[in-house]
From TrEMBL:
This is SGNH hydrolase-type esterase domain-containing protein. Residues 268-303 are annotated as: Disordered. It comes from Brassica rapa subsp. trilocularis. Residues 292-303 have a biased composition (Basic and acidic residues). Belongs to the 'GDSL' lipolytic enzyme family.
Length: 316
């Protein structure tokens, strides 16, 4: 079975399949090796993401397949300043103050929402690799040039300082839950002229910005044992088809594994070669039961995620 990687996030994820997008680049890199599943929702924050988890990630009995990895990329909207211009152009019609951000989520709630999202995924799919991605940096001058609605107060609805605070919170949650994180806020600011090189409107990614995300996600997947070199193509390659007996290349094989031209089998879930040892990081995945480990700190952090999940009332 070809492994699946789910990209879950806001508009930066939704737009990732555009020309030069980081999601499209991942799909190209892993073509015939893994399927990219796009679950990006423009304007969403972690509060809204929690409300739709069951629909975005249905259980196996409801048609949901076991993903090899999930990227969770939220925070840019959570970090909107609460008393600045909103992204809702219809706010005035609905009688809502357009200068009050409907997307803002307080920092402590943002952290808890991330914990709940991670807990949901860990309990539903204990072996799935979960990668948190921080919000990108913000070019405040560009946000004034590209406002969502008429900006009468002359102040950007986002600031780089606020984005950085949420980025640090995102990394902190990843550390608590023993999962990898990509600190995009810091990575991008290492690039000269990042404001114009990485962003086109002060928030959304340019080609260079998309390349940064692509490389960071690719390297993180590789570190988790799901790199391009770890996966094998499904079905025979044209060079493996015997020209004298071409149909023999498509004979039924072991239902639980795929045999490549070089011989090794791959896992039916992760698509990983059996001969390659599973990275130690995978042992940290939560199961619905409390993990047995001598590391009290890890057990405490995992138990916190598990309790948060149960308190939310999600079903497995």
């Amino acid at each position: 079975m070809r492994p699946k990687i789910v990209l879950f996030g806001d508009s930066i994820t939704e737009e990732s399949f555009g020309d030069g997008g980081w999601g499209a680049s991942l799909a190209d890199l892993l073509r015939r090796k893994a399927d990219m599943v796009l679950r990006g929702y423009s304007g969403y924050n972690t509060r809204w993401a929690l409300k739709v988890m069951e629909r975005v990630f249905p259980a196996a009995g409801d048609g949901g397949a076991y993903p090899s990895a999930v990227t969770v990329f939220f925070g840019a909207n959570d970090a909107c300043l609460p008393e600045r211009c909103s992204g809702f152009q219809h706010a005035v019609i609905l009688g809502v103050n357009p200068r009050k951000s409907l997307q803002h989520v307080p920092l402590l709630e943002y952290k808890q929402n991330l914990r709940l999202i991670v807990s949901f995924l860990k309990n539903r799919w204990p072996r799935t690799v979960i990668i948190l991605i921080t919000p990108p940096p913000i070019d405040e001058e560009a946000r004034l040039r590209y406002p969502y609605i008429e900006n009468t107060i002359g102040l950007p609805e986002r600031t780089n300082e606020a984005a950085g605070t949420y980025a640090k919170a995102c990394v902190a949650v990843a550390n608590e839950c023993q999962i990898p994180a990509i600190d995009l806020w810091s990575k991008m600011q290492q690039i000269p002229n990042w404001q114009t090189e990485c962003l086109w409107d002060g928030l959304h990614l340019s080609r260079v910005g998309n390349k940064v995300v692509f490389e960071e996600v690719t390297n993180t997947l590789k570190g988790e044992g799901i790199g391009a070199e770890d996966l094998v193509v499904d079905l025979p390659l044209i060079e493996d088809v015997d020209p004298k007996k071409p149909l023999t290349a498509f004979d039924d094989q072991d239902q639980n594994a795929v045999v490549t031209s070089s011989g090794p089998k791959i896992s039916p879930i992760l698509g990983l070669k059996e001969t390659k040892p599973t990275p130690a990081a995978h042992s940290c995945r939560l199961s619905p039961m409390a993990p047995k480990t001598e590391d009290k700190n890890r057990a405490a952090s995992d138990d916190t995620c598990a309790r948060s999940y149960e308190e939310l009332g999600f079903r497995l």
